[in-house]
Structures are given as C-alpha cells and as structure tokens.
C-alpha cells in the first residue's frame, strides 16, 4: 500500500495553494459580501416587480433574475468557503462530498457564464424585431419559451458538470494540484482535487473546457454586443427619416439598456478573460509569474459577481429607485 504522500502525488488536480496577505483577504471578503448582498437585492427588487407588475420589461427582468441567482449561488457555495479557508480553518471532506461539491462548483460557474451570454443574446434579438416586444405582447407562449430556455441552460450545464463528479476526489493536507480549470476552484478547497487518470487526459479536459465553455461564450458575447450596437446605429439613422415608425419609438430606451448590457458584458469579458489567461498560463507554462497570476485569477473570478449589481442599477429604473430610497433614509 502506498503512503499518503505518494497517493497525493498521483492526484492530477487543478489549482495551487497560494499564500494570501491580510489585505488581499480583507478585499476578497468585501467583494464576496458585496456579491451576495448586491445580487440578493437584484433578485428581491426585480423579482417583486415581475410578480406585481404586468407591464413592460418582464422577459428581460426574468433573465436578469436568473443571472443574479447564479451569482448568489456561486458566492454562497464556493466563494464563502474560500473565505473560511483563508481565515485558517482547515476543513476536509470525504471523497463523496468532494465529488458532489466539485460537480456543484462547475455546474454553477457554467450556468453563470451562459446566463450572462443569454442576457446579451436576448437583447440583440429584441432589437432586431420590427417592433421591440414589451411585457406581455409575447403572450404566455413567449414566456414559456423563455422559461424553457432558462431551464435548458441549467440542464445542459448540469450534464457538462458530470465529469467533475467522476474525476474528483479528496486529497491530503499536503496535496497540491497540477491542473486548473476556470470553472472550478483555483486551489484545493476542503481537500477536494481533480483526479484524472493521467496528466494528458486532464489537459485534454481542460483544453476542451477552455474552448467550448470558456472561450466561445466570450466571443459570442462580443459578437452579440457588436450586433446590438450596429442595430441601434441603424435605428438611429432611420429615426431621422421616419419619425413616427413604431420601430423608432423605443430607440432611446433600448439604447440606454444596450449601454448597461454592454457595460455588464465588458465587465464579464474583462474578469473572465483575465482568469482564463492566468489559468492557462499556469496550465501550460508554469513560469515565474504563475503564482501571482493565480492570485489575479482569483480576484478576477469575483469582480463580475460583486460589481454587476451596481452596473445593473445604473440602467434599471426600479433598482435605481430602491438604492435612492435606501440612501435617503
């Protein structure tokens, strides 16, 4: 029987133990708290308006709630555990719990990516209609299609996360990892590490994940936002020619929404892209800057979750009114 150290060396995982300064830990805790409170506020305020208000903007509000829900779940199920680990509390899980947690972490991060892309794609589709659809003009059929799309996002990404359940295990106290995925943790957490049959199979999974799940959504987000900007540009030109056309009447409102969504997607691309670059530098290069880049990747993963509620508040009327009333008291 091999000793624990030899067993740990056979684990092909993802991540690295990175020392964290008190300043970095305090900043990270602040971002985690902002992410939880901010996205919970988005769910509460917009969710209440969806339930009580049967007028405009319900479809896009439901997509925003879905994105905020994924943000909250990622923060509660993953980032709070990272904070506990940073505070020096050593927690270790059984193999079964590690398999469950690794599957949940990958699932929630995956849903987070595609929910953000769905928001951008939905807005582009809305702009490309002859008359932008408002509220219930789509009827119950449109809402059912939207709900089905959201369910498919969760279901398909659940299927994508199954390998995380299969190829993960619990490591020891001195376990380090040799492979990292953006969609999971950036270091051993609760003793959970990847356990691929070989280094090559681990790299194959990481590469496939990077291309299909991490890189393609970013390119699609950039494409849909460029499409939205171009559509708004053509609508703006048409306004000078046909002032009373129905397609023109909501251009100003749609332009404001496009700016907010563009800012949201740019924030996501910056944070997610930074994380991808840092992670893959570690996976394929292992240069002297690897540990520093892993710290950068860790903060890049939380920046979008923490800041997206503030970006949404800039353009969402109900969120803005709630914040104003909160600050005035």
UniProtKB/TrEMBL annotation:
Cellular localisation: Membrane
Gene3D superfamilies assigned to the protein according to its UniProt record, in alphabetical order: Rhodopsin 7-helix transmembrane proteins (1.20.1070.10)
Keywords: G-protein coupled receptor, Membrane, Receptor, Sensory transduction, Taste, Transducer, Transmembrane, Transmembrane helix
Domain G-protein coupled receptors family 1 profile: 38-312
Coiled-coil ranges from the UniProt annotation: none
Family of this protein: Belongs to the G-protein coupled receptor T2R family.
Record protein name field: Taste receptor type 2
Encoding gene (name): LOC115043312
């Amino acid at each position: 029987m091999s000793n624990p150290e030899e067993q740990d060396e056979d684990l092909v995982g993802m991540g690295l133990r990175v020392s964290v300064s008190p300043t970095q830990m305090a900043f990270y805790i602040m971002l985690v708290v902002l992410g939880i409170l901010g996205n919970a506020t988005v769910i509460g305020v917009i969710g209440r308006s969806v339930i009580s208000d049967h007028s405009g903007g319900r479809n896009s509000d439901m997509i925003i709630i879905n994105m905020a829900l994924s943000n909250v779940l990622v923060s509660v199920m993953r980032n709070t555990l990272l904070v506990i680990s940073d505070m020096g509390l050593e927690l270790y899980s059984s193999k079964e719990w590690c398999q469950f947690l690794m599957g949940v972490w990958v699932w929630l991060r995956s849903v987070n990516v595609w929910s953000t892309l769905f928001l951008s794609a939905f807005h582009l589709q809305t702009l490309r209609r002859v008359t932008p659809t408002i509220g219930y003009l789509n009827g119950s059929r449109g809402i059912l299609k939207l709900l089905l799309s959201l369910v498919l996002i969760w279901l398909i990404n659940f299927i994508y996360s199954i390998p995380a359940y299969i190829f993960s295990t619990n490591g020891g106290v001195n376990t380090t990892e040799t492979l990292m995925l953006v969609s999971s943790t950036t270091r051993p957490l609760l003793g959970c590490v990847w356990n691929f049959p070989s280094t090559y199979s681990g790299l194959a999974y990481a590469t496939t994940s990077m291309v299909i799940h991490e890189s393609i959504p970013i390119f699609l987000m950039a494409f849909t936002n460029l499409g939205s900007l171009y559509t708004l540009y053509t609508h703006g030109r048409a306004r000078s020619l046909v002032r009373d056309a129905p397609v023109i009447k909501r251009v100003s409102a749609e332009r404001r929404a496009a700016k907010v969504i563009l800012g949201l997607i740019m924030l996501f691309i910056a944070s997610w892209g930074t994380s991808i670059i840092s992670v893959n530098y570690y996976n394929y290069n292992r240069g002297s800057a690897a540990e520093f880049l892993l710290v950068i990747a860790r903060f890049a993963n939380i920046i979008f979750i923490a800041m997206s509620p503030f970006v949404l508040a800039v353009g969402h009327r109900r969120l803005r009114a709630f914040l104003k009333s909160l600050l005035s008291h």
